[in-house]
Amino acid sequence: MATEQTQDVAVDGAGSAGSESLSVTDNRTGDTYEIEITDGTVKAMDFRQIKVSENDFGLMTFDPAFTNTASCRSAITFIDGEAGVLEHRGIPIDQLCERSSFLEVAYLLVFGELPTQAQLDTWVHDITHHTYVHENIKKFVEGFRYDAHPMGMLLASVGALSTFYPDAKKLDDPEERYLATIRLIAKMPTLAAFAYRHNMGLPYIYPDNDLTYPENFLSMLFKMTEVKYEPDPRLAKALDVLFILHADHEQNCSTNAVRAVGSSEVDPYSAVAAGVAALYGPLHGGANEAVLRMLRRIETTDNIADFLEGVKNREERLMGFGHRVYKNYDPRAQIIKKNVDEVLEATGENPLLDIAVELEKHALEDDYFTERKLYPNVDFYSGLIYEALKIPTEMFTVIFAIPRTAGWIAQWLEHMDDPEQKIARPRQIYTGEREADYVPIEDRSGAETIDGPPAKRPA
Ligand code: CMC
To answer: Atom 35 of ligand 1 has which residue's CA nearest to it?
Structure first.
């Protein structure tokens, strides 16, 4: 227990103001403070009043990676990680996957309620009629090297959209907000497909307004010499379900990036480009690509035991397992697993599925994983579906970005209207030197060598 002389701060639970506050005693000064509890949270700024002297900056909270910090109020997506629950605007994800369509879910995320038939028709019409991109975007994508990662191309081309729509900077104009929303959701599949066709050395395919959102995407990916591309309805349906499953996931790394960058009042295309960049990372959207590489490396079910030993010895990571929020089966993984069979029925068997199923079984029987509550996440099976659709691994994260754009824009809109928000600007605990003197270069020891860690070498 802290004494008056230590640097500790004791937090005592219920205080004199009742169960809706904390009584906090600063053992450095003996002073006690009442900190209000609202919605199961305390305000970090309420701790700033806790000081040892007048000149003291005040107490800060320290939360690297925001593991226990709510950065906003949001009415878009609810997750109960312990119970494996995911709801959009209160509607469970399994109902949406079974009964809705991706574009309807996008409407739900953006506007907060399910549309009437007339509203849905207008929404679908507007999105369908904004799928074309300016011809210069095509030239821009053509400028990339033949083997450029499609996620890098998507990141750049989404950012480039801001230069085509300068009026999107009028952040308070509802018409501009609507246009940016429509354009982002509509053009993302076109940009994604252009990136894919670029890698394949194939001509880019323009959108086909007669097709549904997922059908049109399949057409832009795979159309060859046929006059009209006719997608397999089973594949279009599976893709639509995958889109619904990836539409939003509350304050994850990329959504946080969109909100943080958007908080500077940059245009929404640039804010969404930040989301694409965040999604690119292997610990976030890049995980499904990593899962496929992992399954290929494992090669046969005979190697699973050895592979899992490597994971337990921390030489490997079991990609597609574990989640910051879900400490139970990711509900999205369950829905995807059901879809895998239907897709494989249309496309033929995939030997990697056997490895995935066996790997999951082994991991779930192993204390190392169950003790740490590591279960398959959405990415464990989604890659197998994409592969069955003959989509190369580099495209997986790109396809994740298409539906997540609906979530990003819904979160961005909510953020822009939130009076509690201002420009995102975290604090730090400074650990470096202070008041050091500038040393002329000739007097610096070791200046003649570039040995040392790469970070110390000149760029
Ligand atoms: N394989 C092996 N061990 C793991 C894994 C894994 N995939 N994930 C977590 N652990 C271990 C971790 O080493 C730690 O063990 P210990 O306590 O002994 O040090 C323990 O489990 C707790 O993990 P954590 O690091 O506290 O978990 P986190 O919440 O920081 O990380 C995660 C979440 C998703 C980054 C991590 O589980 C991971 O790297 N998974 C693999 C990548 C992946 O599949 N990502 C997709 C996430 S779902 C898509 C999305 O929403 O973006």
So the answer is: 283
Distance from C-alpha of 160 to C-alpha of 133, rounded to nearest angstrom: 11
With beta carbons less than 8 A apart as the criterion, state whether 76 and 248 touch: yes
Ligand 1 lined by 404 (C-beta under 6 Å):
no
Report which ligand 1 atom has the smallest distance to the Cα of 373. Answer: 21
Per DSSP, what are the bridge partners of residue 9? 26
Q: What is the pTM of this model?
A: 0.89
Residue whose pair of structure tokens reads 């605007």 in the numeric block? 89
**101 CA distance to ligand 1 centroid (A)?**
31
> Would you state the structure tokens that stand for residue 447, as one six-digit string?
């200046």
> What is the 324 CA–ligand 1 centroid distance (Å)?
7
Asked if residue 236 lies in contact with residue 400, where contact means CB atoms within 8 angstroms, the answer is no
Q: 10-residue block means of pLDDT along the chain (459 residues)?
A: 37 54 97 96 97 97 96 97 94 97 98 98 98 97 97 98 98 98 98 98 97 98 96 93 96 98 98 97 85 94 97 95 88 88 85 92 96 92 87 92 98 98 96 97 74 55
On whether the CB atoms of residues 119 and 420 are closer than 8 A, the answer is no
Q: How does DSSP assign 137-185, residue by residue? A: HHHHHHTS-TT--HHHHHHHHHHHHHHH-GGGG-TT-HHHHHHHHHHHH
Report the alpha-carbon distance of residue 285 to residue 253 in Å, rounded: 10
